[in-house]
Design the sequence.
């Protein structure tokens, strides 16, 4: 019984330690760094998938291939669109902070 619990605990710790290593996370804010942009569109061009920021301007894009690079297109109404090229999940340790300027 003890061996089973130890094994399950070990697997759980391994999954927690490496969860997010195949994802891109970040926050979208205005250029002044004051306002989080809730509902901003974050699109992965190569996959054609769009994600939206939460109330705090944060986004999380899971299940990405670590060996590939991606292009993010960030859009929010009345702000300039921003394109970020060559992003890889393995290169991003703490998450992105993306600033958008008003049009």
Sequence:
């Amino acid at each position: 019984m003890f061996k089973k619990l130890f094994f399950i605990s070990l697997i759980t710790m391994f999954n927690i330690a490496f969860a997010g290593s195949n994802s891109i996370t970040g926050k979208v804010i205005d250029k002044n760094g004051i306002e989080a942009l809730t509902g901003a569109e974050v699109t992965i061009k190569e996959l054609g998938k769009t994600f939206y920021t939460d109330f705090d301007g944060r986004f999380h894009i899971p299940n990405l291939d670590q060996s590939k690079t991606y292009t993010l297109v960030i859009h929010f109404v009345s702000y300039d669109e921003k394109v970020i090229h060559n992003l890889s999940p393995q290169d991003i340790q703490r998450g992105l902070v993306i600033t958008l300027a008003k049009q």
